[in-house]
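User: For a benchmark we're assembling, each entry needs the component sequences followed by a predicted structure for the full assembly. Here are entry 17's components. Please fill in the structure.
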Amino acid sequence: MKINLRNEKFGLFMILAALFVIALIALLYLQHRQQHRLSSIQQEGHRVVRLLANMPYQLLVTDKKQNRILDLLNNTQSEFAYAAVVDLNGQPLAVSSSGKANIPNIDFTDQKSLWISEKTLELPAKDKTILEFRAPLLNQGELAGYVRLGYFEPQLDLTDISFIAQLALPVFLLVPFTYLLIRRELQPLKQASMELQSIMHKQQAGNLPSLNEKESFQDFMTNFKHFVHEIDRRFQILAEKGNKTQAANMALRYQQQRIESTLQTMPDAILVLDESGIATFANSKLPPLVDTELDKILGHKPQQWCQLKELCNFLAAYQAGFSRFNRSNELEIHPSNHLNQTIQVQSYPLFTPRDSETICGSLIIFRDITAKVLADQARDQFISHVAHELKSPLNVIHMYAESLLDPDLAEQQRITTVNVINDEVDRLSHLIANLLNISKIEAGSIALDLQRVKLNEFLEDTFASVARNGQYQNLQFNIDLPRNLPNIQLDKNLLRIALNNILTNAVKYNKPNGSVTLTAEEDEDSIRIKISDTGIGVSPKDQQHIFEKFYRSDDDQVTERSGHGLGLTLAKDIVELHQGKLILHSTLGSGSEFIILLKKTSSFLKSMPV
Amino acid sequence: MKKILIVDDEPHISLIMKQHLTKAGYQVKTALNGIQALQQIEKELPDVIVTDIQMPKMNGIQLCDEILLEQADYKGLIIIMTSRTDQDIRHWVSHFPKIKLMEKPLSLRRLTGELEEYFQTRVE
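Assistant: Structure for entry 17:
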């Protein structure tokens, strides 16, 4: 209310001030007009009196007092009072009067003048002032009288009052209007000021700002200054907070990057779908698998980028089944660009961190299980091979045993049959031994039984045993060893198996009248044991696979000889177990050379005193 | 004399079967694999072919395919010796009345019995 009251006073003051100004302006205007009138009367008076004085005396002074010329002057001016020609004594000779005033009697005898003069005369009766202009009147070169021309002094002319009123009215109306305008304009400023104050004193809640007696604009400026100060202070606080937030943000971003880089370096492809099935994350492993670009995956549903229909269906079905099962789900796919690859797709629901009931998306992992699938295939193949290799001798034994039941069997045939059964049992036990050794070596469960071995003796013994078995084969057996091969530490039994397998092959795959030769040589850092034959040789294609388990050549010359394809695999495994190498040089049709290379630098041989 | 062709990569098996069947009055020839068997068939059509499945170069199944597709003249029986009991082969064989399965280990007496029965029904 205080504000309003003060505003009313202000308004009243404004109105009074405006009225005063209007009055002042009107007064000044009238005065100006009066002045102007006076000066124009003076000019005219001088002019007319001179004009009259210059006229011939007879024209002005006639026998009548009434004079036409003087009458002409009457009514020319509203202020016109009289015009008269008087003689030197002041007696009127000719008179023309407006009738508003009598001509004052003046005795001119003492006031002779040959100059045009101007006098102000007071008319006591009518309380008026007359401006009188006088000029000497000459008759035949002598001063004969005076011309007197009287004008009322101009009064304040109120005839223009309507004009003034017209002028004053808009001015007067303008004042309240301006006042209202200013008031209206000031009101928001006042409010802003109050608001600023309330913002500043916000800590003191509920404390509404009270106005002091200062002017509102000053108020505003003070508040504004405070406000700016307060703003500045808050900005500083905000800047500090901003810095902290930025630091926290950077830490968060770093953590996020760390998580993302972890996800990126995962060997599996990863895809994250949100609850509406839109991809929100995918690592770099995914695009090549689904044969598209990362940009096309992110922010889109799988239906838009997934070309593999089964994968698409899987992802959609999993999405649809969210609420029903919260378990992981699996699918195996073969990417269209890598058909020999097998990718296992596993899908897991993602739960919101706070609520393990609400699902917020799904995590899909694409794992390349090609190696596993191949390993499974290899295992199945191995088992099938083993079964076949085990069954073959059993079949033979079965048939030959059955044939022994024949009472008509000749004695010689019976002996042959029993020998065959014996051979097959040998073959079977050999096969089983090889299989066991290979599986032990491959499982890493075999422990080398290292013994100090006289190499010369060991090689000679093994060779002699093979030569004895092959004595009916029409082959030549040669052994040529340096005398002083070192004593080395090795697993005698295992290495004998390896050497035996190689030598038996040299016998088995030889040609009639061929030879089997065993030599050895020693240099600074290795011992080489060479087994060469003049047999059928190994083709370059077969050389690539000859050490693989169960590998047997398609060659007729190979297939017509019995074998199960494990001997060389085992030999190689055993040599490598001794940190050595088994090397094959062969030419198809002219023989093979197997070299067992044992390095002296290996821990087995080095530590041995010669 | 009825002609039998034995196809097996195991020489001992071929040998004992040959001995046994020869004794039983058949004329027996042997082959180590499908390719050799086809060469034998080109020379002379046997009455019965007894073949193993797992053999190098051309296995028993491939051999049967070749005979059924290429050797239209062959009217005889094919006996497949198999150690496999899986349904695939049984199902496949069921389409061909000419083919008979015999499981390993094969009994020589059962084989001769089977052959005798076949030749009797064929004569009738």
